[in-house]
């Protein structure tokens, strides 16, 4: 267990960050799931920038790797574009 005052503070801060990262990660995963479930291109096109922004924020904070963020955005863009081509 931590004995120094600064180390105890670091433990508290790390716990807060962990909870925040878990919340933001789960919220983003739910947004991605919802975007994939959309069948209309117009609605998906409107939601895509918001989801991409959420993914970028996770990558910026180091919650996910920057390449994983790029892959997620690429796959989502392909799906949204495929909806437009399917019409």
Keywords:
single chain, 87 residues, mainly alpha, 3 helices, 85% helix, elongated
Description:
The protein has 87 residues and is mainly α. 85% of the residues lie in helices and 0% in strands. The chain has 3 helices and no strands. It has helices at residues 5-37, 41-60, 66-86. α1 (5-37) packs antiparallel against α2 (41-60) and α2 packs antiparallel against α3. The N and C termini lie far apart (61 Å). The model has no long low-confidence stretch (mean pLDDT 95).
Summarize the structure.
By secondary structure, this protein is mainly α. The protein is built from three helices and no strands.
The parts where pLDDT drops under 50 for at least 5 residues are none
Which structural class is indicated by helix and strand composition?
mainly alpha
- Percent of sequence in beta strands: under 5%
What's the SSE pattern?
A: HHH
What layout of secondary structure does this protein have?
Blueprint: H1 5-37, H2 41-60, H3 66-86
């Amino acid at each position: 267990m931590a004995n120094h005052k600064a180390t105890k503070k670091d433990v508290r801060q790390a716990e807060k960050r962990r909870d925040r990262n878990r919340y933001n990660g789960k919220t983003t995963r739910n947004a991605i799931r919802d975007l994939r479930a959309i069948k209309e291109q117009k609605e998906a096109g409107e939601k895509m920038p918001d989801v991409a922004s959420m993914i970028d924020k996770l990558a910026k904070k180091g919650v996910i790797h920057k390449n994983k963020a790029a892959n997620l955005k690429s796959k989502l863009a392909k799906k949204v574009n495929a909806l437009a081509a399917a019409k």
